[in-house]
Automatic annotation (TrEMBL):
Family note: Belongs to the SKP1 family.
UniProt keyword Transmembrane helix, yes or no: no
Protein name: SKP1-like protein
The keyword Protease is assigned to this record: no
Assembly and interaction partners: Part of a SCF (SKP1-cullin-F-box) protein ligase complex.
Lineage: superkingdom: Eukaryota
Sequence ranges assigned to domain SKP1 component dimerisation in this UniProt record: 116-162
Entry keywords, A to Z: Ubl conjugation pathway
GO terms (BP aspect): jasmonic acid mediated signaling pathway; protein ubiquitination; ubiquitin-dependent protein catabolic process
Listed SUPFAM superfamilies: POZ domain, Skp1 dimerisation domain-like
The protein's annotated pathway: Protein modification; protein ubiquitination
Role summary: Involved in ubiquitination and subsequent proteasomal degradation of target proteins. Together with CUL1, RBX1 and a F-box protein, it forms a SCF E3 ubiquitin ligase complex. The functional specificity of this complex depends on the type of F-box protein. In the SCF complex, it serves as an adapter that links the F-box protein to CUL1.
Chain ranges of the SKP1 component POZ domain: 14-73
Length: 173
């Protein structure tokens, strides 16, 4: 891939990435460099016309990651207060996804080494969990409670210290 540079000396090269299900996406090299994995692949001359294969990242989360990285790369330096607020709004809207997509984004961002997106997805997950009972969290994340009442009681005894500062959830302890 031929690389042109803009006035700031940044490469205008487009990097092709390929999802686990064979979909191709193109993104500016500056956006690809927000991913540690892609940056290393580019540095090692693994970015060719066929694209960089991402064997564990499906098309839907990869499309969102390409959007995230492209937006953040375009706004990467010298942000005005207004631009910083715009990026904050973008992130807030971007991460408003269902729990399945949130999980896929967490896994993909972690695999690809997109630190900003990983932090954003972890914070969103924490926000979904915060202030809820274990039963509410099971419902939110589709988790089946496979503990017997006796096992729940034992867990409460083993982790009694955790409830000394906060009020214990009504259903667990």
């Amino acid at each position: 891939m031929a690389a042109a540079t803009d006035d700031a000396g940044d490469s205008n090269e487009m990097i092709r990435v390929v999802s686990s299900d064979g979909e191709h996406f193109e993104m500016p090299e500056a956006a690809a460099n927000l991913s540690l994995v892609l940056r290393h692949m580019i540095e090692d001359d693994c970015a060719d016309a066929a694209g960089i294969p991402l064997a564990v990242v499906a098309a839907k989360p990869l499309a969102k990651i390409v959007d995230y990285c492209t937006k953040h790369a375009a706004k990467s330096s010298g942000l005005t207060i207004e631009e910083a607020e715009e990026l904050k709004r973008f992130d807030a809207e971007f991460i408003e996804v269902d729990t399945d997509m949130l999980y896929d984004l967490l896994v993909a961002a972690d695999f690809m080494g997109v630190e900003g997106l990983s932090k954003l997805a972890v914070q969103r997950t924490a926000d979904l969990i915060k202030g809820k009972t274990p039963e509410q969290n099971r419902e939110t994340f589709g988790i089946v409670n496979d503990f017997t009442p006796e096992e729940e009681e034992e867990i409460c005894k083993e982790n009694e210290w955790a409830f000394q500062i906060t009020k214990p959830p009504s259903r667990l302890c």
